[in-house]
Structures are given as C-alpha cells and as structure tokens.
Amino acid sequence: MAEETVRELRASFAAGRTRPAEWRAAQLKALVRLIDEKEADITAALHDDLAKPHMESYLHEISLAKSSCKFALNGLKNWMKPEKVPAAITTFPSSAQIVPEPLGVVLIISAWNYPFMLSIDPVIGAIAAGNAVVLKPSELAPATSSMLAKLLPEYVDSTCIKVVEGGVTETTELLEQRWDKIFYTGSGTVGRIVLAAAAKHLTPVALELGGKCPVIVDSNVDLHVAVKRIAVGKWGCNNGQACIAPDYIITTKSFAPELVDSLKRVLERFYGKDPLESTDLSRIVNSKHFQRLTELVEEKKVAEKIVYGGQTDEKRLKIAPTILLDVPQDTALMTGEIFGPYLPIVTVEKIEDSIDLINTKTKPLAAYLFTKNKKLQQDFVANVPAGGMLVNDVALHVANPYLPFGGVGDSGTGSYHGKFSFDCFTHKKAVLIRGFGGEAGARYPPYTPEKQKILRGLINGSFIALILALLGFPREGR
C-alpha cells in the first residue's frame, strides 16, 4: 500500500499539480476552513487522547495551527519569488538568482503529545513549498489520527496530500520507500531508526526531538511571576508531556527553599489541594508511559527526594505535579528526558555554576533562564548550546513565527515554523545566466603565462584584468 501511495503522489507531483501558487494557497485556505469548522471535533479528539483541557487545546494546538496557515498565506508569494543575488566579477557580465523549488514527495511522521499541531504545522510548510505529502499521525493518539484521516481528504486535494494511519508495521513500510524528505517529530530512539532508513536512499531528514530542557532560576527574580510561568510551561503544557517543557530547575542551595515554597503555593492555586481531580491537567497518554513514569520515582534514593506531590491514579492515568529536590545525578530521572509531571530541582553553590552543569548533558531543545543579571544572561546566551532559548519565561518562543524552531545535536536537526517551514521543504536552486558577450579568451587552453596572469587577476578581483579579458587579451585566432 505504501508503495502505491508514493507512486500516486509522484504522478501528481510530476504532473505539476502542486507547483502553482494558486494550488498552494487553496490548500492552506482549506486548512483554515477545516480548523474553523471542525474545532469541536479537534477538541474532542484531543480530549479523548490526552484528557487535554479545552483551553490548552485551543491555545497550544488549534490557534497556533490557524496562525501558521495564515502566516504562510500572507508570505507565500514573496517566499516563492526567485531571490536576486550579486554576480561575481569572474562571471561578468551575468545575472544570478536563487530559485526556490519543491523537493517532491515528502513524508511527515508526527507525535502524540500535540497530535493536531505537530501534524498540521509541518504539512503547512510542505504544502506552501509545493510538495506532495504523506502524513503519518501517531497511533498513540488514535482519536486525533482517525479525525485527521477522515477530515483532511474532505478539505484538501487528496491526489497530492494523503493520511496513512497505523502503527510500527505501517511506519516501517513507509520508511522503506524513497522520499524526497522525511520530517519526524518524536523520541531520539525512533529518530535514529528514521535516520537509518533514510540513509539507504540518501533522503534528507528533519528530526524534531527533545531532551532535558533546563531552567536556571536566579535569586534576584520576581519569584511569584517566575514560578507561575514555570508552572504553566511545565504542567500547563500537557502535564509535562512536551518536548519544550522544563525538565529540571537549577538554582542555588540558599534560594531553593524559597523557590520550593513558592512552587507549592502556585501549584495548589492552579490545580487545587487534590490535583488528580483537576480538569485543567492532562492525563498520561497510556498505561505504558504511566508505568515508565512511576518507575522513575520508585527507587528509594529518588522517592525520598519528593518534596511535593507524587500522587497517582493508574486507572485514570493521572499523575499529580511533583517536585523533587537534589535527586542524585546518576538516576534515570536525571539522565533521560522525563516527559511527564516530575520537576527535579538541582542546587549549586553559585548560580554561575549552572551553565557548566547544563553543558555536562546533551544539548537541549530549549533552555530557560530567569534573572535580572545582564551578565548572566549574556553568558547564558553565549555559552549554552540549545535548539532555542528564552529568558524570563518558558515555551513562548515557539509562538514567534519569525524564529526557527528546531534542535541541535541529540535534540534534533533542521528547523521549521513560519518561513522556516517553507525553507525546510524547499530546495534553493542556484541559477546563473549569461549571454554570448563578454568572451574571455584567457579561460581557454593553451594556458600561456599571459593567460595565467589575467586569470589570476580576475580571480583576485582586478578591474584591469577584467577589462583585458573582455577586450580579448591575449589575442588568439578563432
């Protein structure tokens, strides 16, 4: 089936269906209509899959997807235009341009934690760039996957944009095909499988992965504001099941007690005395992930570090916001990405030590700093390698379409959002155009000392050498 799907899409692409700006704009407008007309269906699917609060579904998935569509529609004509660039003296007279062209037939494999947004957003970029697309939604969010498979063909051109549902078997079959690009969002483990499959066909890959996103909290901050922002960025983002959610906090030993007390107060105000009953917290996606998360804190040397929360309800797949203090660094909680509602706090003697601590780990997808210290801010930006970073807030950098979103090192490769999504699925073709004038005999054999002198002058930017070359020196017969 996968082979047949790719064959159909290649035929559509070869026929030129996806290239016109009118086709691209029509598909993007159709996606806006889908979001407007089917918001209730989208929200219901997200609630079925993750018990995601309606407000969270709207803020983090529906509104962002719609904004992404509109941004692409507004920029599409300019993005598609060839970009004129200077021509070098060595090719004078000539004109040069960079022509954006679609890559061809692309595969998008999306994630379960933001199953609508992480499906639609890269599709928007692929469509805007003029590609034919296969979307493979995550089988771990079955309601959203089914909804996308049903609704997308009702709105977009199904000869060029297809949804393939299924699990490991279907994904493996898709990865065996030859694609012009693969875009994958998910774990590093599966990312390695995707990369290995792509290598067989020399297929370029964008990997949007995760990592342990750190939050440095200085003692000079407005603590109440900082803690509210951290809390909503951690537990208000799918109950910690987000690639950009804070994974751990670093602060000083002396400031940690005050930070913990403030977190406790804010969490109780946000989610009540019994957070398992809160309708504002998403549940864990499935029993396998619930088991994985509970095992992280079962070890005695981890469990004894819990200073707040820790309640669980296996039947409803709920885990309460949980704060831990000074968990040993060699535990699974501190070595792998948590992707859940636990937030460990690591203490250092001086806040400046936090940068070295972050750099002992793999490069994160996002890094956060709360401070009023400009020197610390400068050091943080200059010395912490991360996919992206934000000072004095959490997660909001993804909402700016003028910033690229993507990882570095273990947190991924490639970026998207806004025009970067268009660029992600575009080949920038170099085009140089010359006429038949300006013939420089010095470029042709036999290479005499006189010719070498003129050519060296040309390469080094000599105006005199250019004039001599254009005048046909040294002279030779035709």
UniProtKB/TrEMBL annotation:
<protein>
    <recommendedName>
        <fullName>Aldehyde dehydrogenase</fullName>
    </recommendedName>
</protein>
<dbReference type="Pfam" id="PF00171">
    <property type="entry name" value="Aldedh"/>
</dbReference>
<feature type="active site">
    <location>
        <position position="208"/>
    </location>
</feature>
<dbReference type="GO" id="GO:0004029">
    <property type="term" value="F:aldehyde dehydrogenase (NAD+) activity"/>
</dbReference>
<dbReference type="InterPro" id="IPR015590">
    <property type="entry name" value="Aldehyde_DH_dom"/>
</dbReference>
<dbReference type="InterPro" id="IPR016161">
    <property type="entry name" value="Ald_DH/histidinol_DH"/>
</dbReference>
<keyword id="KW-0520">NAD</keyword>
<feature type="domain" description="Aldehyde dehydrogenase">
    <location>
        <begin position="3"/>
        <end position="431"/>
    </location>
</feature>
<dbReference type="InterPro" id="IPR016163">
    <property type="entry name" value="Ald_DH_C"/>
</dbReference>
<dbReference type="InterPro" id="IPR016162">
    <property type="entry name" value="Ald_DH_N"/>
</dbReference>
<keyword id="KW-0560">Oxidoreductase</keyword>
<dbReference type="GO" id="GO:0009737">
    <property type="term" value="P:response to abscisic acid"/>
</dbReference>
<dbReference type="InterPro" id="IPR012394">
    <property type="entry name" value="Aldehyde_DH_NAD(P)"/>
</dbReference>
<feature type="active site">
    <location>
        <position position="243"/>
    </location>
</feature>
<comment type="similarity">
    <text>Belongs to the aldehyde dehydrogenase family.</text>
</comment>
